[in-house]
Amino acid sequence: HVQLVESGGGSVQAGGSLRISCTVSGYAYGSSCMGWFRRAPGKERKGVATIDDDGRTNYDESVKGRFTISKDTAKDSVYLQMNSLKPEDTAMYYCATGNTAPCDIEAVLTPTFDWGQGTQVTVS
């Protein structure tokens, strides 16, 4: 049973930075695709960033140049560094993992993906 636990969310002023983390357990770490999606109040889920086995990354246009996804295989973790945050980045952020190709930002919305309980990011 795969478990994902997000952490690191919080409140920050516009222009600030946050780093959110996700630790994965319950299976042999090495899923082909990992990433983050977010859900803002009253809106649909939206893929934010993904990273595949080879470290290739994809980003939604709205976060390109501001967010960076990375992973640490030794720690079974994936991270999202968020800089120059904007109020429109306010959302619950979820870590997701699964096996699919291509590992694009739509992949993390795939029903077969596992995801955690989320961490709240609020930008004011």
What can you tell me about this protein's structure?
With 124 residues, the protein is mostly beta strands. It has no helices and eleven strands. Strand 5 and strand 6 form a beta hairpin.
Q: Which terms would index this structure?
A:
4-stranded antiparallel sheet, 7-stranded mixed sheet, mainly beta, 124 residues
Layout of helices and strands:
Blueprint: E1 3-7, E2 10-12, E3 18-25, E4 33-39, E5 46-52, E6 57-59, E7 67-72, E8 77-82, E9 91-98, E10 114-115, E11 119-123
Parallel strand pairs: 2-11
Antiparallel strand pairs: 1-3, 3-8, 4-5, 4-9, 5-6, 7-8, 9-10, 9-11
**Low-confidence runs:** none
What's the total number of strands? 11
Say what oligomer this is.
single chain
Mean pLDDT: 93
- Structural classification: mainly beta
Let me know the largest β-sheet: 7 strands, mixed
Identify the overall geometry: globular
Query: What's the alpha carbon Rg, rounded to whole Å?
Result: 13 Å
Strand content: over 45%
> How many helices?
0
